[in-house]
Protein 1
Amino acid sequence: MLKNFMINSIIVVCSIFIGLLLFEGAYSFLKGESKILRIVKKRINTPLINPDEIKQKPPTIKDLNDRKSKTDPEEMKSYILDENTLKQLFPEFKSNRVFLGNTPYNELCEAVNNLTNQPSGKNRDNKPSTKFRCAFLRSRIFNNFDPLVYWQFCPDLNEPLSPEMKNFLDIYSFRSTVVLTDNNRNRVTVPSSDSSDIILVIGDSVAFGGGLNNDETISAQLQKRYTAFKFINAGIPGGQPRDSFNKLQILLNLYGNHVKGIIYVHCENDFLLYEPNTPEGIVNGLVRIIDKYDIKYRVFVYQMYIYATMPDIIRSRTQEELKNNMILKDATIKLARNNGFHIVDFYDIVNNYRNSTGSPFAGFALYVDHCHFSSQGVKMVVDQMPPPK
């Protein structure tokens, strides 16, 4: 009996409680939320972190400008950020025989500060016995992958820089180099050699060694390895194949049978709309000249711009352009190989290096700009060349 009484009592109490809840819910629906429900709802909707405590007003342009004027980042002071930085120095550039490469400032390009000359109707060649100070400049203006280049003709390299030029280079220069040419209009190779067995390195600024010192070029790195030969750097900045062929003939006439080898450094811009700028024109033009001298040591270095060697990173070329690049490369290499040239393919060098390092960006280390080899890039090119005999 007692057990049944307890069970019934519990049922009655539960029924009363449920009834009160139903009454409370109906009353709250009609009159508004109860105090209990308001407390529960407030607790549920309250975030763990009060947004008022972390919300910040986004900075305005005025805020950023005010902050910039107070604390101009020290790192940005070493970059040329606008043209006015350069234009205000034009009088100093002109009086100090300075030309700025990779800029539109043709007014700074004068006969005195130009490394090459091209008389009307004749081929381009280097000036003899010239001395230049050069440097890359840190900048945020003009072309991507083409750093501005400071070129200063210096009759005397011991001549001190003007205070304005020294200050300019101290702030903005990235890599300083010296360029020298000899009496025969060839770039000076360091170390020098007195060997009578000569190997000629011909081509444009890639062969010349744009952005490199005299001891970092292809001829210089070969000279350090193979001391039994004299390597001559006959590269011509801005030259076309016809200029290289003309220079090759001049040097063969000068040295005759002492020339034991030819290294032709191709550049992608060899394929401009001038004769003989086709695979057949370039390779056959070389062969016609060197066959007369029975030269057996022949190396053809095939260079490509960064846009073609790393198109997955630098996506500025269309599929059709890349296809044409590869068609020209394959045709040129095949023709050169069939004519006895050992091939050094810089496309393969770049991509093998990327694979070996595991970084798709590693290829940049082999260039100093969009086309010229870095010192490390030159080393890898030279590594691919057979020893001369």
Note: The CA atoms of residues 222 and 382 lie 7 Å apart.
Protein 2
Amino acid sequence: MNAHRVNALALVFGREIRERRNMLVAAAFASLFPPATALFLASGSNARDTREWTAWFLTAAFALITSIALGAITLDADSPSGRLAFFLARPIPSRALFFGKMLAVVALAIGTGALVAAPTWLLDGLPSEPELWLLTFLVTPLVALVVQALSVAWRSRSPWLLVDALVTAILFVVCGLSVSMLQKAELLPLAGR
């Protein structure tokens, strides 16, 4: 990757972060709720649990809502306003445009989640169930990409969209039935645990 593409990616990334910086302010405000909740509703060892679970819930909510909301509008919001055509007319490669915008979505989603959790982690140390937190932060980019793909497909208004949805539904049913049959035949021992 040459320097021009890296600069273009950084330019798009920075612009997206600046444009949506209010989400970070909202996350900073929400980060005050877990300590306040524990202060008013719990005492002793329950306070730590209350803070941790409240922080996890708010972290998951911020991370997932941000990835869903921004994943849905990242490219689509620029199309009607003509901003996407403006970007593509400039010497910004389309890959740098896409990856810059998607990296900003992922950074904002994970950043808002981490910002919400930070005060609780500073008060209590690392969480008692780090796997749950890790899963939340690992699922966030995947959710953003899936929502982005669905959003682009939906805006295409293609008649094939209905066929895609039908085939996807059929595949989910077939997979569910397959797993069920494997469990009944005890060929899939880990699925029931």
Note: The CA atoms of residues 33 and 48 lie 13 Å apart.
